[in-house]
Design goal:
36% strand, 24% helix, 9 strands, 2 domains, four-stranded antiparallel β-sheet, flat, disordered C terminus, 181 residues, alpha+beta, Ctag/Cox11 (Pfam 04442)
């Protein structure tokens, strides 16, 4: 009787493990679909690179301040900073800026930038047409470079919003390096 009970428990645990594994794989496309529906999140899968489809409609009598923030983990061996701490932009106009990153290690490293926008509720009004956050970045030992970001703030941005924070956290991504080899 005890052996039958154990066999049933083992089968339930195997099914639970298989279901958890399948759910983990299903999260990747689910996340991508939800990001497209809500127009938020990391654009790695649904990146907006079609700059030709951007139609500029500048609102010349409105100025929005964009704060550019660069973060690195305490354990990270990176120099990472924005070209300018703030930008004054007109909604509806395409702008460019860049962030500078330098690998402070003596070996090749792959890194990934994770973006965030605050206030989070306006993420759908901030569209990046080009961004270093779309793909992993390969750096040789000691290599440093400017990485571009091109964006447009939607002219339909709510009128009470006059400041947007665009922040990037820059991480070493050894799992991406292992996959790409």
């Amino acid at each position: 009787m005890k052996q039958t009970s154990n066999r049933g428990l083992v089968w339930r645990l195997v099914l639970f493990t298989a279901g958890s594994f399948a759910f983990g794989f299903a999260l990747v496309p689910l996340y991508s679909v939800l990001c497209q529906v809500w127009n938020t999140g990391n654009r790695w899968y649904g990146k907006q690179t079609a700059e030709a489809s951007v139609i500029e409609r500048p609102v010349s009598d409105r100025v929005v301040t964009i704060e550019l923030v660069a973060n690195i983990p305490q354990a990270g061996a990176w120099e990472f900073k924005s070209q300018a701490p703030t930008m004054k932009v007109h909604p509806g106009k395409l702008y460019s800026t860049s962030f500078y990153a330098r690998n402070l290690t003596d070996g090749a490293v792959v890194a990934q930038a994770v973006p965030s926008i605050a206030p989070q509720t306006i993420a759908r009004y901030f569209r990046k047409t080009e961004c270093f956050c779309f793909t992993p970045q390969n750096f040789a030992a000691g290599e440093g470079r400017d990485m571009p970001v091109r964006f447009i703030v939607d002219p339909d941005l709510p009128p009470d919003i006059d400041r947007i924070t665009l922040a990037y956290s820059f991480f070493s991504a050894p799992q991406v390096a292992a996959v790409s080899r």
